[in-house]
Orotidine 5'-phosphate decarboxylase (Candidatus Desulfovibrio kirbyi), 245 residues
Amino acid sequence: MSQLVVALDMPDKTAAMAMAGRLREADLAWKPWCKVGMELFTACGPALLESLNKLGYKIFLDLKFYDIPNTVAGAVRAAAAAGVHMLTVHCQGGERMCRSARQSLDALDAESREGSLHNGQALLIGVTALTSFAPGEMPGIALTPAAFAVSLASKAAGWGLDGVVCAGVDVKKIKLASPHLRCICPGIRPQGFEAGDQRRSMTPDKAAAAGADYLVVGRPIVAAADPVVALRSILESIASQPRMT
Ligand code: C5P
């Protein structure tokens, strides 16, 4: 079954912890995952990660690292050592950058087996095409976002990544080519919820049925009149879906 990750896209620690606490207190059949992205991490820093871990959350740190291989290797190491369970790099950083991130995580895992730092492997995930891109909007890239995402995903599988961030509509093609690659899908919109800046959206039930491993949902939950009701409704809709992959 797909896991549901709540994107805590909020301006400060007080707001984020209030939301995280409220969702944890509710009686829900949910393995609690949250996403900390660039807004919240820039405002709060790594101390927030510890607070969320203490609340029982697994953390997806989505900072989309994109830099020279040595710099990304260091950033990945720092993120994993801070106790996150999943983190992102840009596939567009290319093979050497992605492999360098992989090596950095593997070296950290070897150290943790020897009793220091982070306990347990973080998933290394590559961003393909942002779900906010409509066809023709990607600067300098002639492919459609779908074709670009599928092409990058097949490369990412060979570069040592554990999964990719992609639109729900790309999951079937990606899984067909690389069945072991995890698909992390943002751009999730329950029926009737406004798309906002997203351009390649899918409903949670359809993304779950397509085989998405993780659904990343922000505004449909955190901006809902009642976030607990919204989370419960999405959990119910994905629980009832047989996976097609
Ligand atoms: O509010 P909404 O549900 O659109 O939030 C989606 C989340 O997923 C945001 O935190 C955004 O940064 C993230 N994301 C995305 N598209 C990607 C990668 C990450 O929307 N390709």
Notes: The mean pLDDT is 92.
